[in-house]
Amino acid sequence: MSGTITRDDFARMIAGAAASIRAQHNLLSELDCATGDGDHGSTMLRAVERLERSFAPGGPEDLKVCLREAGWSVLGVDGGASSSLLGTFFGGMADAPACNEPIGTAALAEIFEAGLKAVQKQTKAQPGDKTMMDALVPAVQALHAAADAGKSVMEALHDAAKAARAGAEATREFTARHGRAKFLGEKTRGHPDPGAVSTSLLFEGFSNGLGESKGESGNA
To answer: How many CB atoms lie within 10 A of CB 102?
Structure first.
């Protein structure tokens, strides 16, 4: 595949992420029943629907505009902290100067890093706190590592999906320190964090969506 990706390729990544969430939204709600109010799956469904609309054919061709609109749209989803932080993440991506450049692996890492930094301004959660950050931080770190290693965008997304999945699975052994789940204390052990799992599904979808469009396997 080409060394760079386009706004339309990014739209295919979004479509892949939406498909990934739709396939597993019942699981997300089941996980949330153990530590929350059981609506994480339905919240994520509404969020990815808005993401897809922001990248729909006939919409803005400017990636920065699409990301900004996606962020604001997801922020409007009634889903508590998860939709707020997810909207912040996508809106924050638009702050990356790399949005205006041909998007190779290094530029993609910068775009996702900008999204992560925006989220970090909204939450004090760190990896180990049993939140989405347990999947998001290692995923972004994997993108940077892939860029430093000279890997392609497809390879970088594969690595990011793998890192996010490992981070999400690790939350099974953590005790929640943020959100409603923190009041359950040790009772949260043994259950993966739904926010981390949904974040890992998004990255899996990013990889699969781009891979399918290029005729390559995107499975991590």
So the answer is: 11
Angle 143-147-152 from CA coordinates, rounded to 5°: 95
- Amino acid identity, position 153: V
Closest by CA to 169, choosing from 207, 138, 140, 205, is: 138
pLDDT at 37: 73
- Cα 18–chain centre separation: 11
Rounded to 5°, angle at Cα 173 from 181 and 140: 85
Give the residues across from 74 on adjacent strands. Answer: none
Looking at the domain covering 7-213, what would its CATH class be?
A: mainly alpha
Note the pLDDT of residue 94. Answer: 97
CB-based contact 201:20 (threshold 8 Å):
yes
- For the record, the structure tokens of 28 come out as 């997300």
| Domains of the chain by residue range | 7-213
Residues of the chain with pLDDT under 70: 1-2, 79, 176-190, 213-220
Tokens of 26: 């019942």
Q: Read off the pTM.
A: 0.91
> Are 196 and 175 a contacting pair, CB within 8 Å?
no
Cα 47 to Cα 143: distance, rounded to the nearest angstrom:
23
For 4, counting Cβ atoms within 10 Å of its Cβ (0-12 exposed, 13-18 middle, 19+ buried), the class is middle
Q: Return the structure tokens found at 178.
A: 């943020």
Query: What pLDDT, on the 0 to 100 scale, is given for residue 115?
Result: 98
Q: Where are the beta strands (DSSP E) in 37-103?
A: none
